[in-house]
Amino acid sequence: MRRITVLLFFFASLALQAEDWGALQFLIGDWAGEGGGQPGQASAGSFSFTPDLQGTILVRRSFAEYPPANGRPAFRHDDLTIVYRDADSKQFRATYWDNEGHVIRYSVQTAEGGVVFVSEGPPSGQRFRISYSREGTSQVKIKFEIAAPGKDFAPYVEASARKR
Q1: Residue 122 pLDDT class (50, 70, 90 cuts)
Q2: What pLDDT, on the 0 to 100 scale, is given for residue 96?
Q3: Which one of 10, 21, 23, 158 counts the least CB within 10 Å of its CB?
């Protein structure tokens, strides 16, 4: 009986420590990219959103493989994003790193049917936005946009993924 009580206390304490991911909850899991591999498009890719540190952060790991195109050799893009709740504002924020040396800090906003990560920084600099839109229970549409200084956002990559 004592063993059961200890186990129940352990699992209850984990649940109390875990973050409520709210609008991000639908992203938790493993996702396989759905792409055609045409020039400029990834031929393979996947990503995952996984709670870590006893549910206090959400870790996104992603990769995309690109075939050779226009004299450029094939290459692989890897990135890592950590999503967390800001201690002061209580808002979700994220920091992104990739194998090309980019580091981007995002605020995370709820959107109808999904979430949007918008880069933070001076309006005079380049800005980034990535949107995840829920499509049913097992599919998501992804749009990555870039805005040059003083310009509006323009689509850079659009993709879809299916939950595994």
Answers
A1: confident
A2: 97
A3: 10
Give per-residue pLDDT as tens, 126-148. 999 999 999 988 999 999 999 99
Q: Which two tokens stand for residue 94?
A: 């994220």
For 90-121, the pLDDT digits (tens) are: 999 999 999 999 999 999 998 889 999 999 98
pLDDT at 91: 94
How far apart are alpha carbons 46 and 162 in whole angstroms? 9
Distance, in Å, from the CA atom of 50 to the CA atom of 19, rounded to the nearest integer, reads: 12
